[in-house]
Each structure stands twice: as C-alpha cells, then as structure tokens.
Write a structure and sequence with these properties.
Its cofactor is a divalent metal cation. The chain is of the alpha/beta class and about 290 residues long. Helix content is about 15%, strand content about 40%. The radius of gyration is 20 Å and the shape is globular.
C-alpha cells in the first residue's frame, strides 16, 4: 500500500507525537510519500517526495495528522483528488477526523484488512470573473465566503441563484457552504445543519443589516452568483478559511458544485448525529 502523508506542521511537538505511528506504518511495509512542505521536516530515508499534480503510483490513501484544517488542505491537493483520506485528530475538535493517535494502530489494521467504508463529500467550485473576462478558479470542501476586508462596516451584496435574483442587501458577508461546511463557519453565523450526503448548498448571510434576510438552502445544481455593489471598499473571497482572493467592484463570483469530490474514511464508531452530540453538544440535556 502507498500513502501520502499530510501533517499540521504547526502543531506542538508533532514529530514526537506522530513518530510511533510512522514507525508502525514502516513496520507494515507501507510506502510513504510526502509533499515538498514535509520533505525537510520528517527525515526518514524511506520517505519519497511527490510533486503536486503528479500523484505517486498506486496511491491508496491519504493519512492526515492534524485537525479539520489539515483535512481541508489535503482535499485540495492537485493530482490526488478523490483519494480516501484517513484523518487522525491531534487537536481538540476534529469534526472531520476519523481516528486518534491512541486508536490509529487498531484502525489502520482494519484498513489493511479492507474492513472500512468511505463516504463521498461534495465540493464547491468558485470562479472569480473580472470585467475583462479573466477567471480565477478555486475548489472548496467547506465553504466560499465573500466578506468585508479591513474596514468594520457592511458591504452591499448582490445575490443570485440560477437565473433568479435573490436580493441585494447590506451585510458583513455571505457564506456559501457544502453540507460538510454547514457545521463550520456557516453554523457560527446561524446557518442550518445539512446532512453530509445531501445534494444541497447553504447560503448564510453574515450579520445582515436587515431582519428580512435569512439563510437559504438551494439544490446543489443551482449556480450561486455574488457581486459586491459597494464602492471603494476592501472586499475578499476566502476559500475554506485558507485561501484568499481580492474582489474588485466589477468582479462576479460564481459558485457551482465541483465535479471533484472528497472521499473520507468513515468513522469506525458512531454516526453523524452522535458526532453532533459529542463534538457540538447538539440536543444534549441532563437526563434524570
């Protein structure tokens, strides 16, 4: 089996924490490939380096040590789209993670035995189209956010879905999220929770300056189009909280369902709703 290793290199003592897991993988004769960002950090003679866009031969799995941010970054690596991700939680939250350091050996033994399942998560494609027709493209697993930049005042947002104008409204921004991203930033802004396998897109305004603007859910095949109508304001597009792009007044952001998907190794225990209760304390109350 060949795997790609993704690691949150900013996590405290990450080398010593994941070292036993790496030793175990080498004992199992697993071929380990790393990107250039890890090549100078993890000094194992048997590790091989791959270039983005050129996947390793016979790649079976991505093993991501970190948290949700590490999973998001792994989902966007060019050339390894759709390869199943086994996410190992090093932090406190890890809503998208499957395993922990303590569980890693037992869970990987099950993977080697073929005793595991994979679930597909839809992704978004965001295109920024300039007045001159230039296009910048991005892919997101969680969300695409149009938002104000440095000044603490609302921007004026023009929102369309399909061929229909939804409205023009002042707000700090708007979040376009997948079902996976519905439990992330969108949830913090009052958006709905969507079941992960739904074919839908959530549209969640951020601090709209009107009581009439509320979150929407539209079918995944409806394009969502955004532009900002404010003049002389600093406006940004942020992708999965990790990539950013400056938006000009005449730019239009078009968000559609991506043909790419992220494939996650399903948790070996529990369900989506047990994860909501355990991670987000959803619907929990003291029972007497």
């Amino acid at each position: 089996m060949n795997i790609v290793l993704k690691v949150n290199i900013y996590h405290k003592d990450v080398e010593s924490q994941i070292g036993p897991c790496l030793d175990y993988l080498l004992e199992k004769k697993v071929g380990i490939w790393v990107g250039a960002e890890l090549a100078g950090i993890f000094h194992r003679p048997s590790f091989q380096v791959f270039e983005e866009g050129h996947p390793p031969p016979g790649l079976s799995l991505i093993v991501a040590f970190g948290g949700d941010g590490t999973v998001l970054a792994a989902s966007r690596v060019d050339g390894i789209f759709g390869v199943p991700i086994l996410a190992v939680n090093l932090g406190n939250f890890g809503f998208l993670t499957t395993s922990s350091l303590e569980e890693f050996r037992a869970h990987f033994e099950r993977i080697l035995a073929g005793d595991y399942a994979v679930e597909e998560r839809m992704m978004l494609k965001a295109e920024v189209v300039s007045a001159e027709g230039q296009v910048s493209s991005f892919t997101a697993l969680n969300d695409v956010v149009l938002h104000k930049g440095s000044l603490a005042r609302p921007i004026l947002i023009d929102l369309k879905t399909g061929e229909d104008l939804v409205g023009v409204f002042p707000a700090d921004g708007v979040i376009i999220s997948t079902p996976t991203g519905s439990t992330a930033y969108s949830l913090s802004a009052g958006g709905p929770i969507l079941y992960p396998q739904m074919n839908a897109i959530a549209i969640t305004p951020i601090c709209p300056h009107t009581l009439a603007v509320r979150p929407l859910v539209v079918p995944a095949d409806y394009p969502v189009s955004l532009s900002e109508q404010s003049k002389h304001q600093d406006v940004m597009l942020t992708v999965d909280g990790q990539l950013s792009h400056s938006i000009k007044e005449e730019d239009r952001v078009i968000v559609t369902r991506s043909p790419q998907v992220t494939r996650l190794v399903k948790p070996f225990e529990g369900s989506f709703f047990s994860r909501l209760r355990g991670k987000l304390k959803w619907g929990e109350r003291e029972r007497k």
